[in-house]
Amino acid sequence: DKLTFRPSIYGILIEKNKVLLSKQWQGYDFPGGGAELHETIDETLKREFWEETGFKVKPVKIIYVGSSFFHAISIKKYWNCQLFYFLVKKTGGKLSKANLSGYEKKYADLAEWIDIKKLNQIKFYSSIGSNKKSIEIIKQALKA
C-alpha cells in the first residue's frame, strides 16, 4: 500500500553525433518523466520533452523498456517506475528552460547537446541507475 506505480517516458534526440540531455543535479538524464492522470504515453513524451528542452518531438521507435524502484525522500514515496525510452525526431521549438515546472527549476538547468564521443566523460543521474546502461541505450538508438 506504500508503493506507487509510475509510467515514466523518456526521449532520445540525436543530431549531428550529439545527444540532447537534461542537466539535472550534478549530472545528466534523458528528457522525460512521469505520466499525469489520463495522459497517454505519447502525450507524456511530448509534454515532458517540451518542458525540459523547449523542443517539440514525435516518437520514432521504442528503444528500451524496463523498470526502476526507488524511494523519493523529499516526498516520502516509494515508486515502481515503468521506463519507456523512445528515439524521437524534432518537429519544432528552440532550446529553452522556460517550461520547467516550479519543482524542476530547483534541480534542473538548460538541456545540453553532448558529443556521442564524450559520453564516458559525463555523469548520468538517471532512473536507469548507471552510466553504462544510459550509454547502451544511446548506442541502441544510434543503430535504429
Walk me through what this model shows:
This protein has two helices and eight strands, in the order βββββαβββα. The model has no long low-confidence stretch (mean pLDDT 91). 18% of the residues lie in helices and 47% in strands. The chain has 144 residues and is α+β, with helices and mostly antiparallel strands. The protein is globular and about 45 Å long. The protein has a four-stranded mixed β-sheet. Strands 2, 3, 4 and 8 form a four-stranded antiparallel β-sheet that branches. A hairpin with a 4-residue loop joins β6 and β7 (77-93). The termini are far apart. It has helices at 41-53, 131-143, and strands at 3-12, 14-15, 18-24, 27-29, 32-34, 55-72, 77-93, 108-115.
Task: Count every helix, treating DSSP H or I runs of 4 or more residues as helices.
Answer: 2
Please identify the structural class as seen in this structure.
Answer: alpha+beta
What is the helix content?
10-25%
The oligomeric status of these chains comes to: single chain
Major beta sheet summary = 4 strands, mixed
- Work out the radius of gyration: 14 Å
The first-to-last residue Cα distance is 39 Å
Report the portion of residues in β strands: over 45%
Major sheet: arrangement of strands: 5-1-7-6
Low-confidence stretches: none
Mean pLDDT: 91
Shape type: globular
* Number of E strands: 8
Along the chain, the helix and strand elements come as EEEEEHEEEH
